[in-house]
Design a protein that fits this description.
136 residues, two-stranded antiparallel ribbon, alpha+beta, GTP Cyclohydrolase I, domain 2, 3 helices
């Protein structure tokens, strides 16, 4: 580990400021079966998902170990599974299910989930919802 002023650099960072760790997944575009209209139930459509998680900082060194952090790969895999699991009527429902995945890790203190349907209207980039939840 690098040294600075006689202290390990990692220790200086951990002790020098109030930390907020933000894990993010940006612009995950997936095909899913979503919508209330008959034509939406006939096939898949594109959704774009953005997630930001404020994570409780570790109380000790991470030891460069994946088990000591909120793993974005696990979240992406879970979101993909949700989108492949079958038809969902509402973007709000998909957002809530994604939020449940995010909040399953007790280290997540605040989560913001945005779900956008990309191909609903001509001349409109996206329609959708943003959900925000902070742990008590």
């Amino acid at each position: 580990m690098q040294q600075m002023l006689g202290l390990p650099v990692q220790r200086l960072y951990r002790n020098s400021c109030m930390q907020v760790r933000r894990v993010f997944i940006r612009d995950l575009v997936l095909m899913t079966r979503i919508g209330v209209h008959a034509h939406e139930k006939m096939g898949r459509q594109r959704v774009r998902i953005n997630i930001e998680l404020d994570v409780q900082p570790p109380t000790a060194s991470l030891h460069d170990d994946l088990r000591n952090v909120v793993c974005y790969d696990e979240i992406v895999s879970a979101v993909r599974n949700l989108c492949e699991a079958g038809h969902i009527q509402l973007v709000e429902t998909l957002g809530e299910r994604i939020m449940d995945v995010c909040l399953a890790d007790e280290r997540v203190r605040r989560a913001e989930v945005r779900v956008e349907k990309l191909d609903v209207y001509e001349n409109v980039e996206a329609v959708g919802i943003t959900l925000i939840c902070a742990a008590p």
